[in-house]
Amino acid sequence: MRRSYSWAGDWGLLLLRVVFGLLMAGHGAQKLFGIFGGGGLTATGEYLSSLGFHPGRVYALVCGLSELLGGLGLAVGLLTPLASAALIGVMINAMATQTAPHGLWETQGGMEYNIGITAIALAVAALGPGRLAFDRLFPWGRGGWGPAAIALGLGGIGAAITLTL
């Protein structure tokens, strides 16, 4: 059954997707290219190595590409469940390796930011990207439990693989 959003709802989803997606793509560009105040692959790789991810540069590439491509996919509403999964996986890794020991609040270095990103990515997968998206032509473009499960499941599996390697 096709969801019947109002056009205001579609524009609201577009605003959410574009702002959130481009911000996440910017984080990926920081890691990959050193722009927007980022350290690039070398500095990000060294940081990830200090957290126990070896080789750090490879993990920096995976993380940067996940944020860049996941963010761009969400922004344009293309392969939304996969874009959401990429962002969810990165955030699970961030929580597991950096922010969870500090509790909830960002002011103490906690998981607040990571939880927010995860919730937004999962909500967009569950709702669907709306009519103002490339995915409107595909079944997963309608959202629902299936796309949400794919986003959460693949994000969790990707995070688990990364954390165990």
From TrEMBL:
InterPro entries: DoxX (IPR032808), DoxX-like_oxidoreductase (IPR051907). Keywords: Cell membrane, Membrane, Transmembrane, Transmembrane helix. It is a multi-pass membrane protein. The chain crosses the membrane at residues 68-92, 113-132, 144-163. Its main location: membrane. It is found in: Cell membrane. Belongs to the DoxX family. This is DoxX family protein.
